[in-house]
Write a structure and sequence with these properties.
alpha/beta, 8 helices, 6 strands, globular, binds iron/sulfur cluster
Length: 242
């Protein structure tokens, strides 16, 4: 009887905890070829992974969920990434334009029901994109939020039903910034203006001295995650060769 992908991942998972980020990326590329992609919103951590991947291969896949509410600095960084690394970012959008969302759900949905807004503009587009893939690579780190503290470097993503690779799950913020400076990696200039975590313009503010790095996301709400990395019950796993 052949093992499910979930069981195969569980077997490799303990060894994967000792992998360097480069080893994790190499394993992902060798195992899944063009059925794996890096997912990024182009924060400092994402820039580290993009730079590492570019040193390993020229044709890696990179996608982003473009909510159409991003900062001009973020869109500008996307253009710089495409130019510097010679890649084309796969941009994924909500099925609803901002105007259609307002017509159907009313004005400023993010200020009344940010979970619904994130579902429409982030989670559903991500779910659609991940159906193309057998694995995705993210730049989450364990120390970022409580929900991310249990992240493994290699895991079965029960929420979306595919393999998830988190090559820098164990890194500190200091390691991220050391890599960026040592390798002259481009980054979002908002990071230098007290925005440690950058999302949509409507839901992101600068943080004050002593505030948590994610205190500037969804200010006024208890929300700390957009739903992309939360853990939910599993659908049946697929069968892929590992
Ligand atoms: S971060 Fe805010 S504006 Fe962006 S999708 Fe979520 S609720 Fe909507």
């Amino acid at each position: 009887m052949s093992l499910s992908t979930e069981d195969r991942i569980a077997a490799v998972q303990p060894a994967a905890e000792a992998w360097t980020p480069q080893h994790a990326l190499a394993w992902a590329f060798e195992t899944f070829g063009n059925r794996v992609a890096i997912s990024s919103a182009f924060g400092a951590e994402g820039m580290v992974l993009i730079d590492m991947a570019s040193r390993m291969r020229r044709d890696f896949r990179l996608f982003t969920i473009d909510t159409e509410f991003l900062f001009p600095e973020t869109y500008n960084l996307m253009d710089r990434i495409e130019e510097k690394y010679g890649i084309s970012i796969e941009r994924v959008y909500s099925v609803l334009s901002p105007e259609e969302q307002e017509r159907i759900h009313g004005a400023a949905l993010w200020s009344r029901d940010p979970d619904r807004c994130c579902n429409l503009r982030k989670v559903e587009p991500l779910r659609r994109k991940l159906r193309e893939l057998e694995a995705w690579i993210t730049s989450i780190r364990r120390e970022q939020t409580i929900a991310r503290a249990q992240a493994h470097k290699l895991e079965w993503d029960a929420k979306f039903g595919l393999v998830k690779i988190n090559p820098i799950a164990h890194w500190t913020s200091k390691q991220v910034w050391r890599y960026i400076h040592d390798h002259r990696v481009p980054y979002n200039p908002l990071h230098d203006r007290s925005f440690p975590s950058i999302g949509c313009t409507h839901c992101t503010r600068a943080v004050g001295a002593g505030e948590d790095a994610r205190a500037g996301r969804w200010p006024g709400f208890a929300k700390t995650e957009c739903g992309l990395h939360a853990i939910e019950p599993a659908p049946a796993s697929s069968e892929v060769e590992l």
